[in-house]
Design goal:
Largest sheet: 12 strands, mixed
Helix content: 10-25%
Number of helices: 3
Structural class: alpha+beta
Strand content: 35-45%
Number of strands: 12
Radius of gyration: 23 Å
Distance between the termini: 68 Å
């Protein structure tokens, strides 16, 4: 016996599914449109500086570092700071990158010898707004409000990155609080399931005056300078020299 109400139930269920799908599309379009507007706003930023608080939770321990960041789309980027006893300075003019560890009296020097490395060197300047990193299908707008007095829009999504061609792709979950005044981040949380990294941007200055000299570095006397390019060329066939960040004896600085 066919129950008359069964057909009604199916019609209602189908209608509900259509409504939910439509609502999901509206929310996705809203998130995409808001993100696009903030990315357009961010294009007006040619340089910026900020004080960073970087907290990394690896499940079994936690580290906190503070750093100063200066970024110029035209000239390069500079990061100085770290945790006590693990100071870290990175100076990159898009052609040469210096990775200096005062506590170890060691400088790693890397030169961009091809387009892939040049793109890698430019990433901090080209990706000022983390929304450009999120996979469009995963993007969600969670709402708008304030973070430490700054008007922000909060997004979440996933980002898949590959350090170099042929490397392993890593997918991370990300939450991002983006200023609605300048399109720059004020807070991000990234997680891989094992590690969660939280970065807070404070004392943000938009378009400070910068010159190419701000992104030049001269290794201090008495430090050991390791040419990463030469190390890679001298590695045995089939192997590559480990990047500076692969050193196990170096304290974590958070970025």
């Amino acid at each position: 016996m066919v129950r008359p109400w069964w057909g009604v139930v199916r019609v209602v269920a189908a209608a509900a599914a259509v409504v939910c799908a439509a609502a999901g599309t509206v929310r996705a379009n809203e998130a995409a449109n808001r993100a696009e507007a903030l990315l357009e706003l961010n294009k007006k930023v040619k340089s910026f500086s900020a004080q960073l608080e970087i907290r990394e939770d690896r499940g079994f321990d936690e580290s906190v570092a503070t750093s100063s960041l200066l970024v110029s789309r035209d000239h390069g980027w500079r990061l100085e700071g770290g945790s006590q006893g693990a100071e870290h300075i990175v100076v990159n003019d898009f052609n040469v990158s210096y990775d200096y560890y005062p506590w170890d009296k060691t400088v790693f020097k890397a030169t961009a010898t091809g387009p892939e490395m040049k793109r890698l060197f430019r990433r901090p300047a080209d990706e000022l707004n983390p929304l450009s990193l999120l996979d469009p299908a995963s993007l969600r707008l969670l709402g708008e409000g304030e973070f430490e007095g700054e008007p922000v829009a909060k997004f979440e999504g996933t980002t898949t990155t590959r350090l170099l061609a042929g490397g392993t792709a890593v997918t991370r979950n990300m939450e991002a609080w983006i200023s609605t005044r300048d399109g720059l981040p004020r807070k991000t949380i990234e997680g891989t399931g094992e590690t969660t990294a939280t970065t807070i941007y404070r004392k943000v200055t938009v378009n400070p005056a910068v010159t190419a000299k701000d992104f030049q570095f001269e290794p201090p006397p008495g430090v050991k300078v390791i040419d990463v390019n030469a190390s890679a060329l001298s590695a045995p066939d089939g192997e590559s020299a480990p990047p500076p960040t692969a050193r196990a004896d170096r304290p974590t600085t958070g970025n």
